[in-house]
């Protein structure tokens, strides 16, 4: 059933446009940059793995602090719009310094600019996610909105994947086309942020007046909510699954499955491109059977699709293409569904406390992804180094090293994603419960708006309705 609050597609598309460069950066950072700094720049496998791990660990406190700052922002531009605008130049500068790096840079250089890049991406990602929670208020419309955001992100990833293919025989295509990817991102970030910031409306929900200052114990109370415990745990292990495959992708398909460099780019293109269809499908399914059921179904489907990769004979593009398309299709449902579920929890929190905490709630789940990213790169690279795998171009690896690579790439993600799906057995915040939460919020927001109008007209403050007003 269509809701009166359903957003038009042009607004959703404009809002989701920033997902294109954000997703593209995430793809390049997970797949291309580690190999770029080991194979071209000349840093060791252990050093690059350690750099990504150190940066992720140092970056853990950033998202909660950003979330607190966003939730407390009160500007004419809005609550989240100013942060989105701020994130653009930070991300652009760090992109230039990393993607245009030359051999001879130090480990300190890599760590410093990775930190700045992660900061910029965190600002962009978190502001967009929290803004989306206030933009789309209907339970089912959120599945659609976050599905569109995911689809736009897929388009950005596909576009950046095409660059190495088109530029393979040109100077810009050298070293995997990393420099060309950097210029693409530097151009796309300001364009999409401007489109989002100028077209998308921002609804700043009224808050219950309170003299009490919110402290860290209040934020810990949010994290300890049963719904958030499940979401944080699920987001963590699900991030570990595809995150492991991203860090090992080029090694696995080139060295273990014997595909050429152009073929690995084509396979990755089908994997990412499948997300365009998959994100829309899982968003549609979530509207029909509920978000938590759709997420459980996608986790089971992921295990089946990922297992098929080991059955496909090496260097067989005719089978590898549908195999990678299948994995990408089922994996596309993870992020948008979890993000939409966090928005539902944010509504419930605002009903109970009278305060907007979407920024911090999204910070909690984005922090788990950072932890997952630190673990996947650091641990998987350490395991590969332990089994004797050599990532250098032209290196010959032992069968034992290749077997260790295969086990890390295929089977570890299956187990992790399975646990993520199981976390939602018995989930309570479904469409019926959320409809009641929104009904009470709409009543209270209406009363608050009337009180503001009367106060403006009379010059006498009438106060706000209590947090539990329904």
TrEMBL record:
Domain of life: Bacteria
Keyword terms: Membrane, Transmembrane, Transmembrane helix
Transmembrane segments: 12-33, 39-62, 83-101, 107-133, 145-168, 180-200, 231-252, 264-285, 294-313, 319-338, 359-384, 404-429
A matching Pfam family: MFS_2
Family: Belongs to the sodium:galactoside symporter (TC 2.A.2) family.
Protein name: MFS transporter
